[in-house]
Design a protein that fits this description.
324 residues, alpha/beta, 2 domains, 4-stranded parallel sheet, elongated, binds iron/sulfur cluster
Length: 324
C-alpha cells in the first residue's frame, strides 16, 4: 500500500485509538506499537484521541502484564500473569464505560490487537491452570462496545486487509455524516435525507438491510423521533458492518448504470458494461469502472444520483478503491 498524497479536509474526524499505536510508550514493558498507517496516512483525515486503559487505571510502566483468565463457560477476568490475585477487571470495565460516555463524539475507534484490555476479538483466554483455553474480546473494549454498539471499531492489524480497511473507513465517514447532519439537527426530514443519500453505499454492504430500513422509514413518522433515530441508526450501522463484496458492488454499479440508460449511446454503455464485468471477474479494481461511471454521471446524472455517498464515501486520495 503506497502512501497517498497529503489529504486536505475542512476538519478532521475524531477517532479514538489505543495510545501505544500512536507511539506512546505505555505498554507493560515501556514499549509502543507505533502504526505507520495511522500516523502517516489516516492522521490526515482523523483527529486521533489516544487512550490507554491500563495507564488510566493506575498501572504504571513497566508493569506486570495482565491476561484474560477464565473457564470456557465464564466471562473472563483480567488478572496478573505472575500474581493471579491481581484482578483489574472492574476498573478496566469502568474505564470503558466512562470513555464511551465522555467521548460520545468519536466516530470510530482503532484498537491494538491481542491486548487483554484493547483487543477487539480473539484475545487469548487462559484457563486458571495456566493453559490457553478460549478467546474473547479485551475488557475495556467489551465495555466500550456495550455502551456504544454502533461505534465503528477495528483493530489496527486488520487495516492491512484492503476489504476490512475500506469497510472500516467507510463506516467512520458514514457515522460522521449521521452525527453532523441527523444527530446535530434531528428531524424526520433529515433522517429520510440521510437514508436517501446513503442508499447505494448501504446496498453495497447489505442489500436486504437496505430494503428493511426503507420499509422501516415508511412508517417511522408514527414513532417518537428519538426512537426512530435510535432504531434506524442501530440497523444502519449493523448492516454497514457487513463486508461489501465484488458481487454486491457489481450490483450497485449496474443499478447506477440504469440512471444513464437514456443519456449515453450504446458504445459508451458497452464500455461501462465491460468495465463492470472486468471488475466482477477480478481483473481490475473497483476504481476502474467507478471512475468511468462517475465521469458520465457528472455529465448526465441528476442531483439524486450524483449526491450518493457511494460515489465519494471518503477522500479519494486514500486510494482505498484501488485495492478492492
Ligand atoms: S492497554 Fe491498550 S493502549 Fe495501553 S498499552 Fe495495552 S494495548 Fe496499548
Amino acid at each position: 500500500m503506497s502512501k497517498p498524497n497529503r489529504i486536505e479536509m475542512d476538519r478532521r474526524i475524531p477517532v479514538g485509538i489505543s495510545s501505544c499505536l500512536l507511539g506512546e510508550q505505555v505498554r507493560y514493558n515501556g514499549g509502543h506499537k507505533r502504526s505507520r498507517y495511522c500516523l502517516d496516512v489516516l492522521a490526515d483525515c482523523f483527529e486521533f484521541e489516544p487512550f490507554c486503559p491500563e495507564m488510566a487505571i493506575g498501572l504504571g510502566v513497566p508493569r506486570e502484564p495482565i491476561r484474560l483468565v477464565g473457564e470456557a463457560d465464564e466471562v473472563p477476568r483480567a488478572r496478573g500473569t505472575v500474581d493471579q490475585s491481581i484482578d483489574v477487571t472492574e476498573p478496566l470495565l469502568a474505564s470503558g464505560y466512562r470513555i464511551a460516555r465522555e467521548r460520545s463524539h468519536l466516530r470510530g475507534y482503532i484498537l491494538m490487537k491481542g491486548s487483554p484490555s484493547c483487543g477487539m476479538e480473539r484475545v487469548k483466554v487462559y484457563h486458571p491452570n495456566g493453559m490457553p483455553n478460549t478467546a474473547d474480546a479485551g475488557v475495556f473494549v467489551r465495555a466500550l462496545r456495550e455502551t456504544n454498539p454502533v461505534l465503528p471499531v477495528e483493530e489496527e492489524a486488520r487495516l492491512n486487509d484492503a476489504v476490512l480497511r475500506e469497510n472500516f473507513i467507510a463506516r467512520v465517514f458514514a457515522y460522521d455524516d449521521w452525527k453532523t447532519t441527523v444527530e446535530a439537527d434531528p428531524s424526520y426530514h433529515n433522517l429520510i435525507q440521510f437514508h436517501s443519500r446513503q442508499k447505494y453505499l448501504l446496498m453495497a454492504h447489505h442489500y436486504q438491510g437496505y430494503r428493511e430500513l426503507g420499509r422501516y422509514l415508511a412508517n417511522a413518522h408514527e414513532l417518537p423521533l428519538e426512537q426512530a433515530m435510535d432504531e434506524y441508526l442501530w440497523g444502519f450501522m449493523t448492516h454497514m458492518s457487513h463486508k461489501a463484496t465484488r458481487k454486491t458492488h457489481t450490483n450497485v454499479l449496474m443499478h447506477m448504470l440504469g440512471y444513464l440508460k437514456k443519456s449515453i449511446d450504446s458504445q459508451c454503455k458497452q464500455e461501462l458494461l465491460e468495465g463492470i464485468e472486468q471488475y466482477r471477474l477480478g481483473q481490475v479494481p473497483l476504481v476502474v469502472p467507478l471512475a468511468l461511471l462517475k465521469h458520465y454521471l457528472k455529465r448526465f446524472g441528476g442531483d439524486y444520483i450524483c449526491e450518493q455517498t457511494y460515489l465519494n464515501p471518503y477522500p479519494h486520495e486514500l486510494g482505498l478503491r484501488n485495492y478492492i
